[in-house]
Specification:
Blueprint lengths: L6 H11 L2 E5 L3 H12 L3 E6 L10 E4 L2 E4 L9 H9 L4 H4 L2 E3 L4 E4 L5 E4 L3 H11 L4 H21 L8 H5 L2 H6 L6 H8 L3 H8 L18 H9 L2 E3 L3 H14 L3 E4 L3 E9 L2 E9 L4 E3 L2 E4 L3 H8 L10 H5 L6 E9 L12 E4 L5 H9 L10 E4 L14 E9 L10 H19 L4 H4 E7 L1 H7 L32 E3 L10 H14 L10
Parallel strand pairs: 1-2, 1-13, 2-9, 6-15, 13-19
Antiparallel strand pairs: 3-4, 5-8, 6-7, 10-11, 11-12, 14-17, 14-18, 15-16, 16-17
């Protein structure tokens, strides 16, 4: 449970203790930002419309099942450990990570399977089993991935990119690494088997990108997984969010949950426009020396700054951007199945009959809901029995679908249950026979839920699509171009979506925020 205090007294105490930072949104990026600001000496207030911390990384309980609503895996765990260290804490004392082996299993339409794993020899054996002639190409692909990891994640992704010169300095590296090629094109240049091409190129879908158009820089994920592994946090990512909130409160910060921000307040000064705080939906004004928005960048500029004239991130410019696809997520529990479907592990990718055609339909035909699908299936109860009642299982099945950025978007109120049944039928036919007889509890989220629950423009699952001209300097900056004292974290800013990037966005932001100066009496 989060601490409950009188808001007026809490704000007075916060401001008396030092400069005040308001963080809008208790998603993972906002929580990481609050931790870092607390470590820098700010008194922090985190405000979120949900009643639990974590945003998309939160969980809900239904009929004894814990449904992890969003991200399910942890990669690059050292970024969490370094975040905790900055706050004088030990991450591994607060959160238990369990390595996944295999990481996940990919099931192809022909029934063949590919087990992604950390062991290099094991991965090479999987490649050789599917396509022996592609082994040398796979080895080269891993080398390509490593180069892009060190440049794209450790260098570019952990540094500010709000100045043009930041981009100019690295343009030649983009050229050398052929960032103009897509992820799929790069995979296709190394291996010929279409199943392997899919296995090496689908990762951008988990950060909202079209593998056939997103820059090949994102092949870095293959090295990132191999080098640092894939982990599950016991209790789900929501357990990480709860631990982060505990650190914030331990620093003296305030968690104001179930509270919605209506507007970021701006004061016009002689040579600038400066944030002064936020107005809540209730009408209450919370004053602040700086504001950090973990809300989607589009929502921040379109809605929270609606009364401030903007020069770059106008409503019109944001409407012209390419937004990530939408998501349909079916959360369900099954009765008495703990010993069933033994070939369905913690993470499974179930492919439909099309790859390129399905992705094209999802990203370019937003008014169309395809009859076929591909799914990511999460079964946490095989690793974490606390996710379900004894003997039962908890699942979610995620299907990429069109977002709502069209004049005739999919009507999910009319189509939601039909599509859920189609997901169930597909799983029952291809992976889990008899599934329908065991489903005991169920709910689903559509792009309309992402729009309304998470305030995501167009119901996009991952904010702006991470294309090359919507990345780095071309993405909304961590330090706002529009208003002094406003900073951005989360999927909609640099470096982008995905747990590692969302957490490092707070690291980048913290490097731009001045150290807290004591408030003088007067």
């Amino acid at each position: 449970m989060m601490t409950r205090v009188d808001p007026a007294l809490a704000e007075e105490a916060v401001r008396a203790a030092g400069p005040h930072a308001v963080v809008i949104g208790a998603g993972l990026g906002g929580l990481a930002a609050a931790m870092r600001l607390g470590a820098k000496g700010y008194r922090v207030t985190v405000i979120d419309k949900l009643d639990v911390p974590g945003g998309r990384g939160s969980a809900v309980w239904q009929d004894g099942h814990r449904f992890d609503l969003g991200p399910t895996i942890v990669t690059v765990p050292q970024i969490f450990r370094s975040l905790w260290e900055v706050c004088g804490r030990d991450f591994d004392k607060d959160v238990k990570l369990v390595p996944m082996d295999p990481f996940y299993e990919i099931v192809f339409p022909d029934g063949e399977r590919f087990r992604a794993q950390q062991d290099t020899d094991g991965m090479r054996a999987e490649v050789a089993r599917l396509s022996p002639s592609d082994l040398a190409g796979y080895d080269q692909f891993l080398k390509d991935s490593e180069k892009r990891y060190w440049f794209g994640f450790e260098n570019l992704g952990r540094k500010p990119m709000h100045k043009w010169m930041d981009l100019v300095k690295v343009l030649h590296i983009f050229g050398m690494l052929r960032a103009d090629k897509s992820v799929y094109a790069h995979a296709a240049s190394r291996v010929k088997d279409e199943r392997l091409r899919m296995a090496l190129s689908f990762h951008p879908l988990f950060i909202g990108g079209d593998p056939f158009n997103v820059t090949s820089m994102y092949i870095l994920v293959s090295y990132l997984e191999k080098e640092f592994g894939v982990h599950y946090a016991m209790g789900g990512v929501a357990a990480i969010a709860k631990a982060m909130a505990d650190v914030i409160e331990g620093q003296g910060g305030l968690m104001r949950l179930g509270t919605e921000v209506d507007e970021i307040l701006v004061e016009r000064q002689p040579y600038a426009h400066k944030v002064t705080g936020v107005r809540l939906a209730s009408g209450e004004v919370v004053k602040a020396d700086i504001v950090v928005s973990n809300a989607d960048s589009g929502f921040t500029y379109n809605t929270l700054l609606r009364n401030h004239r903007r020069w770059r991130w106008t409503d019109e410019s944001l409407a012209k951007k390419r937004w990530s696809m939408g998501l349909f997520v079916w959360y369900f529990g099954t009765k008495g199945t703990r010993g069933m479907w033994k070939d369905v592990g913690h993470h499974t990718v179930l492919n439909g009959p099309r790859y390129k055609g399905l992705v094209k339909d999802i990203f370019f035909h937003q008014e169309k809901l395809c009859d076929d699908m591909s799914l990511y299936i999460h079964r946490p109860s095989v690793t974490d029995p606390s996710a379900a009642p004894e003997g039962d299982d908890t699942f979610y099945a995620l299907s990429p679908v069109p977002n709502l950025h069209t004049d005739s978007p999919v009507d999910w109120k009319a189509n939601g249950e039909r599509y859920r049944q189609a997901v169930q039928d597909f799983m029952e036919d291809k992976l889990m026979p008899g599934l329908g007889k065991h489903v005991s509890t169920s709910l689903f989220f559509t792009p309309e839920d992402f729009r309304d629950r998470y305030l995501s423009p167009y119901g996009a699952g991952f904010s702006l699509e991470p294309r090359i001209f919507q990345s780095a300097n071309f993405r909304p900056h961590n330090i706002s171009e529009e208003v002094d004292g406003l900073y951005m974290v989360g999927a909609g800013t640099h470096p982008g979506a995905g747990l590692p990037s969302v957490i490092t966005s707070a690291e980048v932001m913290a490097g731009l925020v001045p150290d807290a100066a004591p408030v003088t009496a007067g």
